[in-house]
Amino acid sequence: MNKDIFLTNNLSNKKEKFVPLDKENIGMYVCGPTVYDNPHIGNARPLVIFDILYKVLKSKYGHNKINYIRNITDVDDKIIKSAKEKNISISELTNNVIKDFNDDCDYLNLDNPTQEPKATDHIDLMIEMISSLLEKDFAYETNSHVYFEVSKFEDYGKLSNKKLEDLIAGSRIEVSENKKKSEDFVLWKPSKDDEPSWDSPWGKGRPGWHLECSAMSKKYLGDVFDIHGGGIDLIFPHHENEIAQSRCANDTKVFANYWIHNAFITMSNEKMAKSTGNILKIKDFKDNVDGQVLKLALMSAHYKQPLDWNKKLLEDCKNTIDKWYEVYLPSSEKTFLDEDILSPLYDDLNTPGYIAKLHQLYDKALKGGNEEKSLFVLACNFIGILNKTKKEWIEFKKKNLSINEDAILEMIALRNKAREDNNYKEADIIRDKLLDKGVLIEDKDGKTIWKLK
């Protein structure tokens, strides 16, 4: 069976069959972190979603056929502000955050992208693109600033599916007396004395944020490529501006063919964001939540839908993975999955549908032999879970117990004594106390055994 991949394309606002420009060289660009602070789980959602898309594309077309670019923005107003607040250099800040970001990706068991370019390594390309836009009269210079003239690009607003005046009314547009019109956006701006700067035809300065992705995607994927992704908050103005400057600089009718955006993570139905202060950083989970639990939670809702975050979600995912480890087997010789198993992911990355498929495979593994167990584990491995051995999983759970083994055995002895004395109420209290600490006890063949919940 040869299944097609379908993706919701925000450029057309409908689900479409994915048809690559070149099946031998598929290009995907995803906006990566702006490294001014450690990533939170809202940032983790696109990391996980596009990692799954990367895996699906590799499975369909071949591991060496996908060129996945995820950039790092290491020059930005937020970075400059954060470095000043922390009283450290910008390079120290960005290096620290990049290291933590990479650690977070390892924690979530993500595949490495093909390239992870940094903005500061590509300033020359940005200057070239600005020069091209000026030559073609899509941009103008004022007082050492260079702006893109939005009115010169007639398709502006097509990705957002809104008219220009509606976009302006619903967003925070930078106000500047240097602009011809309020909607024009900056391509280059002068730096202050204590800010990073590069020489340019317009004086010392630094590039606008939107320009960075246009320059880096052009270098690694060409003028036109297959997929551009990111969070839904990037549609306007970031992705809208990328399209405008790239198409005008490159003289193309298309920038990327498919635009994929994930919805927000919310807490009590309010968007999770650093600006609101309701954030949970990825690093804060590492000591007591296994990475695969966090990953399964991030896949529990379809990427197009908001995901409301709560403790019950994490607890449910932990219990699910704990159950799945009952049939764990080390990886077998089988290294590929049939497309019928992957069919939910082929259908617009339907991760809840794939999780339901895993539950079905688990039920078969529970009743079947090693072949069914191996298939189930392989299907879990495909999305980056059950990637640890059963022993590693149990050791992690033990590490996070609020009670040690000696104390567990002591409480079991007290419970057994209570039962001998027919004090079943006290025995139940002890059992419940152990359960609260993550320890499940079971009376079997005249003995009491315990295991982690």
Which key features would you list for this structure?
453 residues, alpha/beta, Rossmann fold, 3 domains, four-stranded parallel beta sheet, four-stranded antiparallel beta sheet, 15 helices, elongated
Number of helix segments? 15
- One letter per element, helices H and strands E, the order comes to EEEHEHHHEEHEEHEHEEEHEHHHHHHHEE
**Named CATH architecture of the largest domain:** 3-Layer(aba) Sandwich
Q: Strand content of the residues, in percent?
A: 15-25%
Find the count of extended strands (DSSP E, 2+ residues): 15
Q: What composes the largest sheet?
A: 4 strands, parallel
Helix content: 40-55%
Number of domains: 3
Distance between the termini: 41 Å
In the CATH hierarchy, what is the class of the largest domain? Answer: Alpha Beta
- CATH homologous superfamily classification of the largest domain: HUPs
Report the C-alpha radius of gyration, rounded. Answer: 26 Å
Q: What name does the CATH topology of the largest domain carry?
A: Rossmann fold
In round numbers, the mean pLDDT is 92
In the predicted model, the low-confidence regions spanning at least 5 consecutive residues are none
Query: What structural class results from the helix and strand content?
Result: alpha/beta
**What overall form do the CA principal axes indicate?**
elongated
Widest sheet: strand ordering:
4-3-9-10
